[in-house]
Description:
Blueprint: H1 5-20, H2 29-44, H3 57-68, H4 80-83, E1 135-136, E2 142-144, E3 150-151, H5 165-169, H6 177-181, H7 204-216, H8 219-228, H9 239-253, H10 260-265, H11 274-283, E4 303-304, E5 310-311, H12 325-329, E6 338-339, H13 361-369, H14 371-377, H15 385-388, E7 391-392, H16 395-403, H17 417-428
Antiparallel strand pairs: 1-2, 2-3, 4-6, 5-7
Helix pairs in contact: 2-11, 3-8, 3-9, 11-17, 13-14, 13-17
The structure holds heme C (2 copies).
One heme C (HEC) binds near residues 82, 136 and 139.
Amino acid sequence: MRRAAPLLIALGMLLLVLGGLGLAGDRPPVAAQEDALRARLEALGITPLSPPPEFPPALVELGQALFFDKLLSGNRDIACATCHHPLLATGDGRSLPLGTGQTGLGPARVHAPGRMFIARNAPDLFNRGDPAWRVMFWDGRVLVRGDGTTVTPAKDALPAGLDGLLAVQALFPVAAIEEMRGLAGDVDVLGQENELALYDEYDFTGIWAALMARVRAVPGYVDLLAAAYPDVRPEDYAIQHVANALAAFQASAFAFTDSPWQRYLHGEDGALSEQARTGATLFFGEAGCWRCHSGPLLTDQRFHNVAAPQLGTGKREEAPHDFGRGRVTHDPAERYAFRTPSLHEVTLTGPWFHNGAYTTLEAAVRHMIAPVESLRAYDGAGLIAELRANLWDDPDTLAAVLSTLDPLAGSPVPLAEADVDLLLAFLETLADPAAADLAHLIPESVPSGLPVED
Ligand code: HEC
Ligand code: HEC
């Protein structure tokens, strides 16, 4: 039995007494739970998400074309949408993505020899235009500090005139060798030299200028840019105009603020089933989830090592490990820490965790309740065989992961088996049904004329 049980009994007795005094009248206990949850949410500052701002339609239209256009990749073979697809809940439905040099969509994408898995799971893009976002990427290598300065891998090369963090983020997938830019010596799908791959890894200015040369050479983009930026002279079109349009499209197309949970926060008591409400009470109460999944976005945007399994080909010098936040800060104490994910639409966005280690939401929730036990028991069930061969579960790796475990990880009190279902019932209410059907966002064609089907 949970530690809070005596508290609940005491509360019940108090209500009986108050009822006897005629103060609580004939209110059912449900109303008491309702009031307690609402008071708790108020205390934690859990308010509804705000709808996205209105963007000029021409800017969104430009952004949509760019998001689906493989022109933005060195080999003209992969678009943002390949890894963030509308039919795959703005992810790719895979544990780890496959970048340029490969074909197919989502789980059916085919791994080509000589290409590596991308080290991390492609996150969903839901509600990323919300102004409360301060941290991008699982390791926060793009973020806005408290004093308003933006920190990115491009340092001083970051152009001026970017409309926010989502626009800043859009500058990086195009520069990433394994994701979109390609390897030096690659030939694109049309048989031409991949000129974007020739630049040095840190020559962001060179990469972005070369990409803009491509975009400006397509008449359809000159027209879309002119419509989106009537006050900018064509000779001044630069990478920030592309980035701002990509951000506007993502912010408007992927904002969903009508889940049962959002309706509950707007005051609609009936929006949650009793099970979901009890699950929410657990989540924001004794299960301790609220300590990291906090605020309206359900993330503190901080980094925690919650004992996620080490899976995949890893990152550069620390491969096959991925130190997460620790590789950005070079602080050994931050190794294996990753940004707390936002949980809106989480039922749709699997596989879960920074490397897609969990292929069911239930397994992800069970991990969060008892991380150490879950790490030790993890055997990669549900992963494709090729990935299971890249699971690092030797005793040294487990010891290394557990040595920087976040003290907040895991439920502060033991939970009962039935609580898993209650937590899942709550998580289900975070999904807006409209987010499950995004086929209408896929354009029939893009200005470059490259195929959009996958
Ligand atoms: C090869 C697959 C792939 C492609 C192509 C790709 N992404 Fe991503 N995207 C990822 C992965 C993987 C991450 C997480 C990487 C990390 O955190 O280290 C990510 C992260 C992001 C994020 C950050 C989300 C968050 O919550 O931090 C945004 C936004 C995003 N991508 C947008 C884009 C845009 C826009 C494009 C096209 C310009 C694009 N992506 C192309 C795989 C891809
Ligand atoms: C110590 C902070 C912390 C606490 C407490 C916490 N989480 Fe998490 N949660 C995280 C982090 C960090 C991740 C991502 C870990 C990774 O991928 O390495 C995560 C991942 C998740 C995911 C997967 C989401 C996705 O998109 O991949 C779910 C679901 C989740 N948590 C639910 C819960 C629930 C339910 C609780 C309470 C029982 C909880 N969490 C408690 C920090 C926390």
